[in-house]
Write a structure and sequence with these properties.
Layout: H1 7-21, H2 25-31, H3 57-60, H4 62-72, H5 74-77, H6 85-105, H7 121-124, H8 141-148, E1 154-157, H9 164-177, E2 184-187, H10 194-203, E3 219-221, H11 229-241, E4 248-250, H12 261-267, H13 279-283, E5 286-288, H14 296-306, E6 314-316, E7 338-341, E8 344-347, H15 348-352, H16 356-362, E9 372-374, H17 382-393, E10 401-403, H18 414-421, E11 427-429, H19 436-446, E12 455-457, H20 465-477, E13 483-485, H21 494-505, E14 512-514, H22 525-532, E15 543-544
Pfam family, one: LRR_6
Length: 559
């Protein structure tokens, strides 16, 4: 005989159904009678009758939603700042549902409609729906998208959920539902057709900018989606004029070479006095166009566009074969012209400069906040990199982070690197640039003053013993250094003794020194060395040495 439910269990079940299946949790809360006018999260304070104030309905349950979030996602809880816990709970729940559905849809045995996919009891139990016999829709992905979609301000959609033939309609409905509140949209590794892209833009009212449908969108990431130059140009043109607050634009690993050629042709030879009026570009802080096969001409066009991004902080154009011509200074016949852009008097040469170095030179004059620059694998030579480093070393507002990794610069670039090291730069990546022992020796001789470095990558430079001597000098001059990557530098076994001696004398806050991939074999005394140097806060080892259980093959950068 089944147990007769109590009155309180029936009431709890009714409330649960209303929260999960109802349209508005606030309406439910407001309909409940309360014994006092002022009610805290769990009890009424002593002075509740003295003050006639009534706290917001939603605030009364905020700590409860916070506790539920911490219980369900403890690994995410401490990475989440002050938020609307009700909104972030259901947003994360929906993302879990989408991630689970995408994994199942990738199985060869899957053959059906993605919206009809069943959500596992492992997820449903957290919202009290694991026993859904009376309401089978609870288990469907479409139900969760419809019911909790309006809480999603950030959406991360994998490829399998962006197949036009199966789910374009469902995805667009989800986007339409959130077009006024969506702050982040991420589509990675999706083969998006032009039809599908147009449908997405229409869902967000991107096409009709007068409706301001993308006003809330702050982050748009379209990584490796097989997008072409036409889409990139269309998107850029829209953002130039739209009333959006977009701060992050990621178009990395697509095929957008030539995307700004229209922009260049439109303004070449005349003063573009209307540049910079687009609110979207004024709020843009991160631009990632890595891995798009961009050439020198693309960088020339980009230099025009960068002026209309006065608040740009991070620029990543890595893995594009721009070569030296893409960064070098080219004289402009308009250098003496001036005009007004967004209330600022700028030189026309800034608008009409052909490459990046003039942009960097004038960035402080425009009070540009540019802080991070990534030029990895750009086929730069020592000559071009030296010219760039000399320019960056003399900026009134120096960079915080610079990466020139995986460019064949050679040992002669060491002199220019010395200059950038004495600036307040905090993060420097020069891995795989071919410094060699001569380059490290030159760097070590030129290091005299205290450095502000926090993180440096000198891996894959074949520096041998000179790498260890450089590290010893670095540890004595960089008290704020936290992480050093010195892997694959062909350091002999005696290097470890010199490095450990420097670590004993160092008074900094180093947390990680990675020495894997060098030419010494694992020795039993390595364990004691690792145990000797540990980070005070976490207790984790500072030294990362080759493991006795792994065969560490020396790095080989020969073609």
């Amino acid at each position: 005989m089944a147990e007769v439910p109590s009155l309180i269990s029936l009431a709890i079940e009714a409330v649960k159904r209303e929260v999960v299946d109802g349209d508005d949790e606030d309406d439910l809360v407001s309909s409940l009678s309360r014994p006092f006018k002022e009610w805290d999260d769990y009890e009424a304070p002593d002075d509740c009758l003295k003050h006639g104030r009534k706290r917001g309905r939603h605030g009364n349950f905020d700590s409860a939603w916070k506790a539920l979030f911490k219980l369900r996602w403890p690994e995410l809880f401490y990475r989440t700042g002050t938020v609307d816990w009700l909104q972030i709970y259901w947003q994360t729940h929906l993302q879990n549902c989408l991630d689970e559905a995408s994994e199942l849809a990738l199985l060869p045995s899957f053959d059906g409609c993605i919206g009809e996919m069943k959500i596992s009891d492992g997820i449903l139990k957290y919202i009290g729906c694991e026993e859904h016999a009376n309401h089978p829709n609870y288990s469907k992905l479409s139900y969760h998208c419809q019911q909790f979609g309006h809480y999603a301000s950030c959406l991360r959609l994998p490829n399998v959920l962006c197949v036009a033939e199966t789910c374009v309609d469902g995805l667009c409905k989800l986007l339409i539902q959130n077009s006024e509140t969506l702050t982040s949209l991420e589509l990675n590794y999706c083969k998006l057709s032009s039809t599908f892209v147009s449908a997405i833009c229409a869902s967000l009212n991107i096409v009709n900018t007068h409706t301001h449908g993308i006003r809330s969108l702050c982050s748009l990431k379209l990584h490796d989606n097989h997008l072409d130059r036409n889409f990139a140009w269309k998107l850029f043109s829209i953002l130039l004029d739209a009333s959006s607050n977009l701060s992050i634009l990621d178009l990395s690993d697509n095929n957008i070479a030539g995307w700004l050629c229209n922009f260049n042709g439109k303004w070449k030879g005349k003063i573009p006095s209307s540049l910079g009026i687009g609110k979207s570009l004024h709020s843009l802080r991160v631009l990632n166009i890595r891995g798009n096969d961009l050439q020198k001409d693309d960088v020339e066009s980009l230099s025009y566009a960068l002026v209309s991004m006065p608040n740009l902080e991070v620029l990543d154009i890595s893995e594009n074969p721009i070569e030296d011509d893409g960064i070098r200074l080219v004289e402009s016949p308009f250098a003496t012209c001036t005009f007004n852009v967004a209330g600022k008097n700028l030189k026309a040469a800034i608008e009409l400069c052909r490459c990046l170095i003039p942009y960097f030179i004038e960035a402080p004059e425009r009070c540009s906040p540019l802080a991070e620059l990534y030029l990895e694998s750009c086929e730069l030579s020592c000559s071009g990199a030296t010219e760039l480093l000399d320019t960056l070393s003399n900026l009134k507002r120096p960079l915080n982070s610079l990466s020139l990794a995986d460019n064949g610069l050679g040992s002669q670039v060491a002199g220019a690197l010395q200059k950038i090291l004495v600036t307040p730069i905090k993060t420097l990546n020069v891995g795989g640039i071919g410094l060699g022992s001569l380059g490290f020796k030159e760097l070590e001789k030129g290091m005299i003053a205290e450095l502000k470095l926090v993180d440096i990558n000198i891996s894959k430079n074949r520096g041998g013993l000179e790498t260890a001597r450089f590290l010893s000098k670095l540890l004595s001059l960089a008290p704020d250094i936290i992480a050093i990557n010195a892997t694959y530098n062909l350091m002999p076994s005696e290097s470890l003794t010199a490095i450990c001696s420097a670590l004993k004398l160092a008074k900094g806050s180093l947390e990680r020194l990675d020495l894997t991939g060098n030419t010494w074999d694992y020795q039993p005394n390595h364990a004691s060395m690792v145990a000797e140097f540990q980070h005070n806060g976490s207790g984790r080892p500072i030294l990362i040495l080759p493991s006795s259980f792994a065969v560490d093959v020396p790095y080989d950068d020969d073609p």
